[in-house]
Specification:
With 182 residues, this protein is an all-beta fold. The chain has a single domain (11-167), classed as SPRY domain (Jelly Rolls, Sandwich). The chain has one helix at 11-14; strands at residues 23-26, 29-32, 39-42, 50-57, 62-68, 87-90, 95-98, 101-105, 114-120, 125-130, 133-134, 137-140, 146-152, 159-167, 177-179. The strands form 2 sheets. Strands 1, 2, 4, 9, 10, 11, 12, 14 and 15 form a 9-stranded mixed beta sheet that branches. The chain has a 6-stranded antiparallel beta sheet with strand order 3-13-5-6-7-8, with no helix packed on it. The radius of gyration is 14 Å and the shape is globular. The protein starts with 10 loop residues before the first helix and ends with a strand.
């Protein structure tokens, strides 16, 4: 299923919390700066509905997913993947991560492919897509309220936000295998 956006995305409208000493936000791109340790960028807190974030990058170590909205401030300067409330997919290897552990692997995205995360806050699920193709493994029992998170390790490579917003319906076409956090 192809996604399209009606209004242009501006990263600063999507990312509401980030450390300016660790990230640069420009147009539709977020870039982790040299000299910074692990750090996260976060959206506004979400309480209900189905929401999606899609990114493209040439970087080889970026995690995309969600974490508890009450917990994100401490992850402005520490790795989001340390969080027991984080549900993330790694671009490098396709692994699903929570609480510093890789749980399982989906398909490995290639540089420049679009990685999407879709959170259904009523069902409390987080599904992943690569170039619109749903991946087998997903998370269940995700926290609500939540924030979308980008956890970047690779410096000076832009992460382009290609889609961000609330969906009227889910793009999930099969249930796959669900995994709990932590």
């Amino acid at each position: 299923m192809l996604l399209s956006r009606i209004q242009p995305i501006v990263a600063s409208d999507v990312i509401i919390a980030f450390s300016p000493s660790f990230f640069r936000v420009s147009g539709t791109s977020v870039t982790r700066l040299k000299g910074a340790d692990h750090a996260g960028c976060f959206t506004k807190p979400l309480l209900k509905g189905i929401h999606r974030m899609s990114i493209k990058t040439q970087a080889y170590f970026i995690l995309l997913g969600v974490c508890d909205s009450d917990e994100y401030p401490k992850h402005l300067t520490t790795p989001v993947y340390h969080s027991t409330t984080a549900a993330l997919m790694n671009i490098n290897g396709g692994g699903l991560f929570s609480a510093k552990k890789e749980l399982v692997k989906n398909t490995t995205p290639q540089p420049g492919q679009e990685l999407s995360a879709e959170a259904d806050l009523e069902k409390r699920t987080l599904h992943f897509f690569i170039d619109g193709v749903q991946q087998q493994h997903h998370f269940v029992n995700i926290p609500v309220p939540l924030v979308f998170a980008i956890d970047a390790y690779h410096c000076d490579v832009p992460i382009d936000i290609t889609f961000w917003g609330e969906e009227t319906q889910s793009h999930v076409t099969f249930e796959g295998t669900g995994h709990n956090l932590g």
